[in-house]
Amino acid sequence: MRKLSVFCLLLIVLAACGNNTDEESTDQTGEDAKQLKKITLVLDWTPNTNHTGLYVARDKGYFEEEGLDVDIIQPGEAGAEQLVATGNADFGVSYQEGITEARIQNVPIVSIAAIIQHNTSGFASLKENNITTAKDFEGKSYGGWGAPVEKAVLDSIMQEDNADVEKVEIVNIGNTDFFTALEQGIDFAWIYYGWDGIKAELRDQPLHMNYLTDYSKKLDYYTPVLATNENMIQDDPETIKSFLRAVSKGYEFAIENPSEAADVLIEAVPDLDPELVKASQEWLSPKYQDDAEKWGIQKLEIWENYANWMYENDLLEVELDSEQAFTNDFLP
Question: Based on the number of CB atoms within 10 Å of its own CB, is 64 exposed (0-12), middle (13-18) or buried (19 or more)?
Fold first, then answer.
């Protein structure tokens, strides 16, 4: 009986030691988790290859290396600019036009990195329709989303070809898919080639593109960009630096390894078409940095050119203080 009691006592002690070890392990794990700073990053739209570097930074552990736990969310009804400006998101994907308009209205949002160095958007039409110049827009129907900037951009590039924007039928198609709009009789629309253009290639529907940059340097603006708010800049600059170190690594990885980066995005967002993501990534990866000295850099000239263009076309009530709208200070 005494031997049995000693044995039982030994089992109890061992069990207690085991439990203590588990508790210590759990506590340590919890402590490690607490050391990661929670960050929210809101996208501008549904996930696509504009965002690949963000998912690479998250899923390859670059954010974690910087002590960050980043939650990537979609904007919903509230746009990225609104969520970032109000502090409901720490960082967001935006674009130069949106930040320019926000700054004019005293919304404290600031661009901290250019995701793509040059504007890759333009007016697309089916090649078979032979719309090869802006002059050819006359007598055709344009499908847009009803923003004043659309007519102003059309007018600017059509003037370069001595064409009249008033001879274009501008139709508000809202969020109608580009290809659906073409099927419904729209002749041309404004797209980003890196997504809808690549999709057209895969569908064997050759397009003709009139890129904005073919017509005017003023329309070579940054789209998209990463943004934060002025409070974050003032109160927590180290977190911005940490965030951008990780994001820079993510986009540099995507530049050097487009196929593997595409795999990261496909795994992170299974609803995406893998063939489209692969092809889009191959096309877009070289354009993230393009001719810039490093990924993410922004130039004052680009901000001033586009803001001046917007002001000249009555899209801004007052002129933009461009130096306050963006910064390169947090880039690694």
Answer: middle
CATH 3.40.190.10 domain residues, the chain: 36-118+221-325, 121-219
Residue 297 token pair: 């850099």
The CATH number of the structural domain formed by 121-219 is 3.40.190.10
Q: Please name the residue that has the structure tokens 């990924």.
A: 295
Q: pLDDT digit string (tens) for 295-329?
A: 999 999 999 999 999 999 999 999 999 999 999 99
Q: What is the pLDDT of residue 34?
A: 62
pTM of the model: 0.88
If phi > 0 it is left, if psi is from -120 to 50 it is alpha, else beta; for residue 213 that is alpha
User: With respect to CATH, is domain 36-118+221-325 assigned 1.10.340.30?
Assistant: no
Q: How far apart are CA 82 and CA 88, in angstroms?
A: 8
Residue 313, phi then psi, degrees to nearest 5: -100, 20
State the burial class of residue 4 (Cβ atoms within 10 Å of its Cβ: 0-12, 13-18, 19+): exposed
A 10 A CB-CB count for 225 gives: 25
Spatial separation of the C-alpha atoms in residues 90 and 71, rounded to whole Å? 10
| Phi, psi for 146 (deg, rounded to 5) | 85, 20
Is the pLDDT score of 15 beyond 60?
no
Q: Is the pLDDT of residue 12 over 50?
A: no
Separation CA 287–CA 292 (nearest Å): 10
pLDDT digits over 186-240, tens only?
999 999 999 999 999 999 999 999 999 999 999 999 999 999 999 999 999 999 9
